[in-house]
Queue: 4 jobs
Job 1
Amino acid sequence: MHEHDVLVVGAGGAGLRAAIAAHEEGADVALVTKLHPVRSHTGAAEGGINAALRDGDDWELHAYDTMKGSDYLGDAPAIETLAQDSPKETVQLEHWGMPFSREDDGRVSQRPFGGLSFPRTTYAGAETGHHLLHTMYEQVVKRGIKVYDEWYVSRLAVTDHDDPEERECHGVVGYDIKTGQIQGFKARNGVILATGGLGQVYDHTTNAVANTGDGAAMAYRAGVPLEDMEFIQFHPTTLPSTGVLISEGVRGEGGILYNNEGERFMFEYGYANNDGELASRDVVARAELTEVNNGRGVEDEYVHLDMRHLGEERITDRLENILHLARDFEGVDALEEPMPVKPGQHYAMGGVETDENGETCISGLYAAGECACVSVHGSNRLGGNALPELIVFGARAGRHAAGTDLGEAEISTGETEETEFEDGLDTPVEPGAVATSDEDAVADGGTAITSPDETVRHAVENERTRVDHLLEKDEGVQQAELREKLQKSMTENVNVFRNEEGLKQALEDIREVRERYEDVYVNDPSRTFNTDLIHTIEMQNLLDLAESITLGALARDEFRGAHWRQEHQERKDDEWLKHTLLSWNEGTPKLWYKPTILDGEKEYEPKERSY
Amino acid sequence: MSTQIEESETEAQEQEAEAEEAELPAEQEPQTPGDRRRAEKRERREQETASEPVAETDDTFKMKVFRYDPEVEGKMEPRFDDFYVPKKKGMTVLDALIYARDRFDTTLTFRHSCRQAVCGSDALFINGRQRLGCQTQISDLDTPVRIEPLPHQDVVKDLVVDMEHFYDQMEAVEPFFQPDETPGDELEEQRQSRENREKVKMSTRCIWCGACMSSCNVAAGDNQYLGPAAINKAYRFAMDEREGENMKEHRLNVMDQEHGVWRCQTQFSCTNVCPKDIPLTEHIQELKREAVKQNLKFW
């Protein structure tokens, strides 16, 4: 058994920042990642980091823009923390040597992004995430922080108290991908989940193949609620054939969207007469699909994004990476012709419910970054707000797990007196009632024995049993077939445009896949680098997350942010200024709500969003 | 047809001669019922996958993929498997590998993640050259497309190589920023000129894929040679104006060693294969010049 003070699962932006912060507080910290840190998907982020660094800008403006962009579903204490901490965290990266783009005076450059009232997006070319990831990994190397790379964390070790809030997390179970060994990892102080996005729930996504939402799904099965899962961001500019992202920086620098008639539709069809192409992402994504659905799409599939007029010099200086992406993945020379783009799954606004210190309702269990929902993005994330979330809340989770007193959190987690249970949702199938692998425990991986060592040992045993079963089973169904079925149904039914019929169809499809998953087997008998096995374990995570997204979307009968419902074309503030939460306990998911916090240091009055 | 995989015996034998001999672990007696069942499963898989060859047609292309697994009986001897994959516009080598794995043989093993040339995990030896699978269009290649693991690295399984040595070399050059001093104010930037950022820009694009190291004849013969990627990493910091003179001197001393920059024979193979177009050879030459200049100063 490996033992450390703090274990960080996942080594992208949030994980690396959490590990550095915990180390700075004197903790013995280790990173456990199924990739190698520099392979993490943070490296694919392009646009930049929002931080109020300049005269004329301040954290209050940043917080206000973020609250407005969230369509008033963000929690004020989290949003204000993001806006207040981002400047020093961003300059911290600069002090660590991150190669930001520069102004003539040597200070870091900033540019305009969608939904921002000030050009506060700090960037390094169109490859900001790559530089952020490498800069932080360099700091991890410098500090000698232990990294277990290509170790897949497949289960949490939590105690099995009836009430999730009495449970404790004592560690995780890791699977050494190279050798097939399963081992326990004990965390004396805390486990931080930083496992990133869940884009593989969809078949057209900007996310990496590794983004299967492992942390969120494991936390869910251990009894932690998932918050606001219905809010999936579809990025308006992804390449049609692969889903590769074309940064919002292109529109920030002045790129223009055209339909097949050559019309600048954002203005001509009135989708966003003030901001045009720089309206919020949900607005632009819907505009593009409306054009395509009304017969004004190119090849009935996509629209054109044109940046030729910016001139070669400016493009090369600020967007060079985009030229490579367009050439390599779509065969288009973006200096000569417009790029084909369409919306694609990009980001999960929802995730593991945490407070602004990163902690969940299970003590010793933290989450940060895209897998978490501290609720800074609400129903729609502004471009440039993902990277500051990673560093701000990664650092806070790391510090808190290492024992630093960050003060009492203003956001409460778990069930409280404000909890309101859903009792009238009409679903075609009972959600998620198919048993998990460990039927003797109320929490997946849980154990009635509460000593930390025994808890980890018990979880390891459970995992060995599961893996042995998958490897020994000779026939049945393979994960690739199930994954394809799930991804297709989600893309068809739980996409940019949603209606009740489609959502119910998705729930039925998810149920069918879930039942067939009971008969899943791994064809590869090898213990060496068995990707067949890893993908099969990931598949269960995709299933649980797909279901939580769809259930939340069915429950929320209003139109807010990225969540558009055909039958409900208005934002219903009287009913829906609240977060959806889904928690799994003893095999049965339950849906409940808690109110959005609109008062922090400032008060935020819901207003109509217009762009 | 039953399957589109061809694993003809004679073909495999032919290829064996070309493929590197792998170390075989001693075979063990099955010890538990689980082990026995797994052994039976391995055997059955062996019989199932041997099938009639399928010819390349107008709609498909042939891919010859290196296979090896130290644990599975039929794969302990390295061989090539043929896969016939439907042609599709815009298809990359990675797309084709995923197709073959998901449709024909789920045991086919390779690393991949971002599929947009930033994670660096799918550097492969494709038609005799180091390339990223995700960045290589099938239409740009002659068929059959031959896919092998990166040369000069130990093969873990199929197309997966052991990257530990590469990581060790990267970390040997103190790959982290060491400025003389950092502004005391946490909101004050250190400032870097645009010119200086331009100078180091290309060197910061490295994605640690290992293609350069694999292509380098010198690295193949000298295990201690730092190699192009690690030297480029050192260049990134040595040329950054925010690190002071003393640190630059220290960095040049690390480079100016028997297994440092002087091992480079300027063959340009690293530069040729770099998927991010980093002028690696040029960076190594520049560090050689800097090292000489530094030595002259001491005379």
Note: Chain B touches chain A through 69 residues (CB under 8 Å).
Job 2
Amino acid sequence: MNHSIMDPMIPHPYKIQRVIKETHDTFTLELKSIEKNGTFSFAPGQFNMLYIAGIGEVPISISGNPTKNGSLIHTTRAVGTVTKEMAKLKRSDVIGIRGPFGTNWPVKEAEGNDVLLVAGGIGLAPLRPVIYHILSKREYFGKIILLYGTRTPQDILFRKELEKLKSRLDIDIYVTVDRATRAWNGNVGVVTRLIPRAPFDPINTIAMICGPEIMMRYTITEISRRGIASENIYVSVERNMKCGIGLCGHCLYGTEFICKDGPVFRYDQIQNIFGKREF
Amino acid sequence: MESLERILVEHPFLKDLSPEHVHLIVGCARNIVFEPNKFLFKENEEAHEFYILRSGKVALEIYTPEYGPITIQTIGEGEVLGWSWLIPPYEWNFDGRATELTRAIALDGKCLRGKCEDDHVLGYELMKRLASVFEQRLYAMRLQLLDVYSGTTPKIKK
């Protein structure tokens, strides 16, 4: 049973099994419940509230494999007070977890279609469970295309994993960076520049986008230009969250709560407020 | 020449151009291959050509004394590379280096400028298409400048 059903406001203790330094400012925590019968299941795109006693709580997407029970995986960037403290944690330290919360990526709806995943920076982490899910049921999907943009070659998240995936013949992966020296032989430029060449069938494609909001906005412009309808586009929206269950109102977004009605939204449902300054 | 014409007609940059105009452009075109690490052009050299890339990838580089060559953008298959041939003093602003085996159609800028002067309809058509390339590159470069993945807001003094 998931904790959220028992009491969504109570953090449950999880022990850190492993800390992986992904890049200079991002890291992955592998966690295991220390409660009896403490299993954890989630859908791709959902998030947990991670709590460090005496410091605070932050919402972080789950970046592990949803088809495997066992350890719980979170990848984040050390950028705020809590995540900077989190980056200092070591194996065997204990943190609190509440969740999983929120909506998920439309992996069921995507069956029978090409799937276009567009990730920017740390936005690759919430999309990683989608990749695991799709690859576990590969025959149910058409072409799978991942477009990933990040700052520099040193900022590429899950680099070894991406290289391994690239060697598969049933997924197309394109990576681009904003700046590089000659040591990098790949693409340089924003992720939207990869879209015109990406090999998907626009009328049978489900697009899932995660990254900084401005990057998602321009990505939507480009993929719409290629002919993907707005009802086939999904985005993950980020705002400050507190309770995680739609009570406190911290993450109100128009008439929706990001924590409960999001973070994954079908684009046509938020199109009128997406990218608007007031929201 | 016939196969060059076929390739150019099918390219999005020249899509829907009249057969007469395509024919005029073909007169200024040649097939070209660049080995990996071969420079297509260097900064401050005369820009006498531009390229329609058929395959491969070209890095646009700026040399910096601190870091050496920095790649500011890569141009790939299906894209158009270069507009310095159109704008005085007709000199390249960056280095262009093939990062892999690159096949392209090179178009002679001087030859095209002459044809555009003689035929303003052709000139206007080419200018519209190049303006669209400028717009896309400028827009991409503006996004790049925002440094959206840095996770920090740019420090701007009020």
Note: The beta strands of chain B are 29-34, 39-41, 49-55, 57-64, 68-76, 80-81, 95-98, 102-108.
Job 3
Amino acid sequence: MARPMQVSRYWRHFREKYRLIGGKCENGHVHFPKRPVCPVCGSRNVEEIELSGKGKVISWTIVRNPPSGFEYYKPFPLALIELEEGPIVLAQLTDVDPEEIDFGMEVEVVTKKIKEFEEDGIILYGYKFRPPVK
Amino acid sequence: MRKAVIIGAGMTPVGEHWKLGLRDLAVEAIFNAMEDAGIDKVDSLYVGNMISGPFVEQENLGALIADWAGLGNIPAVKIEAACASGGAAVQEGVKAVMSGLEDVVAVVGVEKMTDAWPSDATRYLAYAADAEWELFHGASFVALNALVMRYYMKTYGYTEEDLALFAVNAHANGAKNPYAMFKRPIKVETVLKSPYVADPLKLFDASPVCDGAASVIITTPEKAKELGVPKEKWVEVAGMGRAIDTISLASREDLLTLKAAKVAAERAYKMAGVEPKDIDFFEVHDAFTVMAALSLEALGAAKKGEGAKLAKEGQIAIDADYPIQTMGGLKARGHPVGATGVYQTVEAVLQLRGEAPSQVPDAEIGLTQNIGGTGSNITVSIFRRV
Ligand SMILES: [Zn+2]
């Protein structure tokens, strides 16, 4: 499964994936990730916006048979999280007992290792979400 | 625009074909369809396939299959729309005939999935999702559907047991289909006792990884007459529609509306001049039980939030008002992804000819709906007895 240009492929998105940079159109619609066209109003006048990373769980699952490359982490929780600015993000939950996960549970973003052991040896980092650290 | 009729249909059994490769399956299905139509040549070939590259390191399926089926130097291409590739290929074939550009078209849907390790198969299927924003985070296709399933259950108050009824119905019908992968009925308990793949989605909520190919021959009524195909074999393509939605689930305006199916269905109903109540059977894309429920809602067979209620009320059985999955659906017949839309078409043809193993009484109009991605690319086709 050797894929050329792996590093550049992930580097390209490091700002979104490390800092949760999304898009905000001239009419105030916020989305994540940033798109060339606002999905709500069709405006192409879209600026970058850094999202707060605070949100709540809308739905979740426990991935027991993951795609190849993620076997090491199984089982792991994956969730849809609605951020306080509005957009919904798909991400893994971390530092949480699967039994504790519930609808509306508050979570915050944290940068974590997403995957390693790729054939080319690179380690991928990105956002995950966890219950807020008090 | 010309009219299009299907004059031949053929398939291979769905299963784990360890002794057969992709080309063997495709050629067998095409030969069966051509034999059914009683013809020995076609003007072009459209191949529905999703992921032959990763699965068997083979692209250029148009050339491969037309070559090995001995179809001559005809135009032949692969059509890809994730799991809706088969439905899209059928529609491209129909468009070619309706436009007047081609007179006799062969469509084949084929997928060879069991040559890969299971976790690699899981990965390849997730290629239909958004690579950067879904697969990157370890999402499998099952996991994305599980997120929808949990949200559907929470929003409308359904249980895992309620959704299991879709699997039970599919297996009851598949048990009579000699081409189905699973030819045995199951109980609700069978589903509930099966292990979680991605909670709350269990093994028996999901369709299997498998191999298979199905094929149809499309032409005009005039040409069908000229070729001497008996009219009993004709099935009219009455309406079709196709639409996309956001590729990633997180970007969806409403997680519980299959917008692409809604838009595609509106187009198909309009073209056919029919309404949901006129449809005698629905072949919906039940890759996961929750998708059967959402599909019935998007197609107008049930109100929003009431798709699973239709199953609870016993309305989806062969002799009820909204029969679905009459030959087992993806769940029991099997879901060789890029072939599925063509299997659905073949099964609709058998129903409308009155040749189905579990026949819907007096079926005159049938609908097939083929979903690619987590609802991101959907085809709806309506067929009518001639
Ligand atoms: Zn906007």
Note: Chain B has a mean pLDDT of 98.
Job 4
Amino acid sequence: MRFTALSAPSAARAAWVTLAAVVVALLLCALIFVFYGVSPGTVYGTMLRGTLGDSTGLAEVARRTIPLLLIGSGLALAFRAQFFNIGAEGQVLLGAVFAAGTALFLPLPGVLLLPAMFIMGAVGGGLWAGIAAWLRRLNVNEILSTLMLNYIAVAVVTYLIAGPWKGKEVRGYIYTDLFPENGFLDVIPGTQVHWPTLVLGVAGALTLQWVLSRSTFGYALRVVGENPGAARYAGLSAGRVATTVALITGGMAGLAGAGEVAGIHHRLLEAGQISLGYGFTAVIVAWLARGNPALCLITAPVMAIILAGGDLLKIDLNMPFRVVDVFSGVILLCLISSEVFIRNRVTWGTARPAGSKANG
Amino acid sequence: MDNVFVEALVRALAVGTPLLLASLGAILNERGGVVNLGVEGMMAVGALAAFAVAVAPGGNLWLAVLAAAAAGALLASLHALATVTLRANQFVSGLALALLGTGAAGLLGKRYEGAPLFNKVPDWNLAGFVISPFTVFALLLAGALAFYLNSTRSGLTLRSVGENPAAADVLGVNVGRVRTLAVLAGGALAGVAGAFLALSYRASWADNMTAGLGWIAVALVIFVGWRPLRAILGALFFGVLYYLQFRLQGNSPIPTEVFSAMPFVLVLVVLALAGLRGQQGDAPAGLGRAYVRGER
């Protein structure tokens, strides 16, 4: 296989290669389902019918789109700066913790409570990502640090809901008391779609796209991400860009956490119930969008179908929810492997003409 | 007093065994220039393959270990294809394989949940120490790997591919092939680490039985500066911590969550210390980057 670099890969090429990568991923997953002993047709049929087939299904997709959009658009920005934040899961949890703490313990007048919960949620998520940014200055790879922080965040949530924040009226269960009603977010009637967070997500994605393409900071971010050498030469501090990006990304994830507890659960509860792996799925949302926050408006619902579909597979076909990790892993692997086909023309054969970039 | 110490050491060695096996594998592929963050997934599929073969009718423990190595290598072959052939980002590819490996193991392993393993790998009694053959193998392997990397021609070639792939290429080394083989070997060892969990340490199958050990192994590699013999001490260090966690849990006023978070907090501390000491300078110079002929 021989690769010849294309000078200016077109958007169309990126689009069809991405689409092909997703198709290959779905075929590979089908192979795993055959091994498991279910027909891939049944699996994909169940997922599609139950998500896009009726209004309840669509509402379930919308509900999962909300956190994915918020987290994914932040991650898209981070990936452009080559800051590989894998810890959105933990940042979501810390956002939920800060929002819940605000609702449960801060005596705020009614109208101020929800805005305060969201602000504190962003602060919580931002702080958690900030630790990773700070560690990066000590040369600690952020993929490892953000991942470890996920495990630690789970322990923080469990400690709080089983210990000092354990509800007074909940007896054997481990979760907090309900928030005061001023801390409940509006939902579309009959669904769990907390639309104010959805509005926040759409606004966030568009704003981040503007920041990336139009602002001075966005320019610095792109230079640092695309050409670290040139950035150093131009006097741009990669460390400062990484820290700012970490705070924005973590803040967005924190907002998602605040939205989940204020919009759906109305209390702090077990980590696995606050987030159904949103942090990892959002990595794919951001990668599918090729680092464009606004494109997450399309890719977040796509991945939401997989999350909502995973729930259906659990209920209808009695499959473990782990199936979602299989989807995520395979899609991510196919996406990053396909990138070489966007930037290069591929010819098959072993000859190596002078000057070409051959790969043994 | 003596007994407590011996018990602590034996237990630390037991927890340290999968860490040592997996990090030796990671040292091998990282010395060749490829980061493998997929260790957790490769351990998970290794554990499942080992358990599935061991409980199958006529299942044989040797075959089970072999199956674990093959399963780890199979997952690693995807890593090699993505990062060596298709030049994908090594870090993200590893992450994807960690997700895929743990996910596929959890999915395909559901039918084995709670099933008993009657033919667990028997422990050896070495002068009063009850020890798993896996532990003995891991310790010997550390020595062998140190010898291989430092004193053999093939080990030198591997290191040169990790340090300076372009120079190795000029000297006629097939960089892609060396890296692929190193990644496969690393995956196989992660698989064997999983086999230890399924066949000896826990002697059962459960979803998420690797419980983050793979990630700790990845961090351990940095902590020990990519040196196999030091990895023994590193694995023992984390083994002692797990032992303390086990001993103190429930017997102290400290909440359990502190103990469950402790290994991960310690990994962060250890990585930060390694960073402060400038130990990342020990990393192979070509680590984490795809090699493209004619670039750089």
Note: The CA atoms of residues 135 and 145 of chain A lie 8 Å apart.
